Amino acid sequence: MLRIAFLLAAACVLMHSAVLASEKATTIPVNGGSDKIVVPANSLVEFASVSKEDYAAKFNGRFVLSGTYYYGDELPADDPDVDLEIDFVPDADIAAKLPYFQNYGRPKAIAFDNSAEIVKAIVPAEAIAKLNKKGAPFLRGRIAIIVDGYRADIVCDAPIFTVHFISVYKAPTRVAANEPNIGGCL
What tens digit of pLDDT does each residue of 50-97 get? Predict the structure, then answer.
């Protein structure tokens, strides 16, 4: 009986190892091979193409993107103008399933190629009026949205990950917050 249990346990370990071996990420050379796009085995999107001019990688697939959004004035405090922008920090479990540049790591922030549409869908007009004043705190919230058109670019020597907003999947929660510190040139 003990021998059967041992053989079953050994078979389970071997099968698990075989599954893990088959779940390896795919890498796609970009920029003449100096970097690679890593597509996780459990990726939410499928590779479509890579541009030879700017080595931007495009992906197909619609998915639910969850995380924290920040909306507010992106300009320095001493600048008299107000420039309202939306920034998005994906949940770690979602970021782990998205393609990224091997030399830069997983997406820490995601931009929108249609930011006006997502702002219109999730930020009330009265909040925009309040945020349009210098020194107003950022609006922060948790949200799940449906997106497609995932794209990975290098801009200003930093990775930029972009999606196209489709619709709200789960209504946002909103709170006032300090400016996000996510770096890069979104």
Answer: 987 777 899 999 999 999 999 888 777 777 777 888 999 999 999 999
Between CA 139 and CA 172 the distance in angstroms is 11
> Could you tell me whether strands 175-177 and 63-73 are parallel, antiparallel, or unpaired per DSSP bridges?
unpaired
Contact 56, 28 (CB under 8 A): no
Return the H-helix or E-strand segment holding 131.
helix 125-131
Question: What residue ranges do the domains of the chain occupy?
Answer: 25-177
Please name which of 102, 94, 108, 101 lies closest in space to residue 147, comparing C-alpha atoms. Answer: 94
Please, what sign has the CA dihedral across residues 12, 18, 21, 22? negative
Count CB atoms within 10 A of the CB of residue 128. Answer: 14
* Placement of tokens 């099968």 in the chain: 15
Q: How far apart are CA 105 and CA 107, in angstroms?
A: 7
User: Where residue 1 falls among pLDDT bands split at 50, 70, 90?
Assistant: very low
pTM of the model: 0.79
Cα dihedral across residues 56, 180, 177, 135: positive or negative? negative
Residue 163's identity, in one-letter code, is V
Residue 84, classed as helix, strand or coil, is strand
The CA angle 139-154-38, to the nearest 5 degrees, is 100
